[in-house]
């Protein structure tokens, strides 16, 4: 089971949204990380057969994406904005979507009950969709994406609007589902990728600027991340010299975490980079023309 993307391009008129994208996505959870506007949603919509590429090739388990009928049999899709008729019950909405998915009647009820149990919505099956919490709605979205028992799940910005507890519960669910299928998730939250994925691709301005294992992305930030303590009147000048990751006020002092490609002019202690640190460093260098 794999997805192979080769030299994929997408244009709207003269504007290039995706530029020569080539990726290999294996079984398990795979992260697509990038800022808003990087091209993540466009790529997800192409993989979900909702958009056609301008050029390039995509194969899903050996099947060309141009064969939409066959591809749609093997994929489930949860877009960033997802809803159903608000007054329908959870069970009725899933049943309606199952009919639209041409799920045979003799297995429909059993499949829906299995999914409600799997996504922990058994107790809410008679609740109206509009009365579900944000986390419950995302779990419902996973259930509808799993109706045809897909080999590939495509999920766009899955934790948008979720509180930390719901985010953790949601990703635990995805990790369980990823044992025997591909789960491709897109997000701009580095911590979500670090907690769940083994492999990641980073997009910036429609280009892949990194593809590989999470650990290798983190290594890019080694000897590039420092902390120092500043006085209040030093902060503005310091911002002009370095890329600030975060600051924390402690009385009259300011604790500052920052990026530096060489040796800082002010005394600073090198620290172990997180995925977010290395991601910010990678994006920053790309935008400065350092590739």
TrEMBL record:
Source species, domain of life: Bacteria
InterPro entries membership: AAA+_ATPase (IPR003593), ABC_transporter-like_ATP-bd (IPR003439), ABC_transporter-like_CS (IPR017871), P-loop_NTPase (IPR027417)
This protein's record includes keyword Nucleotide-binding: yes
Residues covered by the ABC transporter domain: 3-230
Record key words, sorted: ATP-binding, Nucleotide-binding, Transport
GO MF annotation list: ATP binding; ATP hydrolysis activity
SMART domains: AAA
Pfam family, one: ABC_tran
Family matches, as PROSITE patterns: ABC_TRANSPORTER_1, ABC_TRANSPORTER_2
Annotated coiled-coil segments of the chain: none
Family from the record: Belongs to the ABC transporter superfamily.
PANTHER family, alphabetized: ABC TRANSPORTER, ATP-BINDING PROTEIN
Official protein name in the record: ABC transporter ATP-binding protein
